[in-house]
Amino acid sequence: MIEETNINKSVFDVFPELESERLLFEAYTKKDAQTLLNLRSNKAISKYMDTTIPKRIEDTEQRIEGYIKAFKEGKGITWALIEKENNTIIGDFAIHHIDKQNSRGEIGYILHPDFWGKGYMTEALTTLINFGFKDLNLHSFSANVNLENVNSKTLLLKFGFKLEALFRENFYYNGQFLDSEIYCLLQSDLK
Fold it and tell me: For the N-acetyltransferase domain, which residue ranges apply (predicted)?
């Protein structure tokens, strides 16, 4: 029998909507498919992603269905990041690949380039780290980062994430094998 840690499974009873100073964290719905298509097909964003770039609204509708399914199964939570001032989706943030046995969740995020350099990801990551450790009761977060994504690595290091591993040519994407770095933050790192 696999021993499970103390992840707070009640988090998955009702989708957890969160709020920070300038952002709302809400569930995606099918009505957001066009906005998500615009975000995920943006070249500045997609150049660091290791997933297929959506070409049709049906692609992002399927992605949103996947987010909903992952939440219902307790495997992940993906939030639309909404700027309060304009009530506009400007990106998203996820805790996915939740490993209940080891109380670990992988984070992933995207932000529209118009909002880069304005502290939105710092604000979002602060909110999500607090949620993950306090509400979900995770032991650690991991982040899988494209080596060329300097902004993402800088953000993670700012929060105390440590480089755990370099995986050489560990995934095939867009016709080539790519390297990635894995970063980790333990709950005890914040004490």
Answer: 23-179
Model confidence at 181, in pLDDT bands (50, 70, 90)?
A: very high
The span from the CA of 160 to the CA of 171, in Å, is 26
CATH code assigned at 173: 3.40.630.30
- In the DSSP assignment, the letter for residue 16 is -
Residues contacting residue 129 through CB under 8 Å, at least 6 positions apart? 141, 159, 185, 190
Of the chain, the percentage scoring pLDDT greater than 90 comes to: 80
Does residue 173 fall inside a structural domain?
Answer: yes
**Residue 49: strand, helix, or coil:** coil
Domain of residue 186 covers 9-190
- Chain segment 88-107, per-residue pLDDT in tens: 999 999 999 999 999 999 99
Decide if 150 contacts 29 (C-beta within 8 A).
no
Q: Is residue 1 part of a domain?
A: no
Number of domains in the chain: 1
Q: Strand pairing partners for 83?
A: 23, 88
For strands 104-111 and 18-19, give the pairing: unpaired
* pLDDT given for residue 3 in this prediction: 62
The β-bridge partners of 79 are: 27, 93
3-state helix, strand, coil in the chain (%, to 5): 35, 35, 30
DSSP-derived secondary structure letter, 29: -
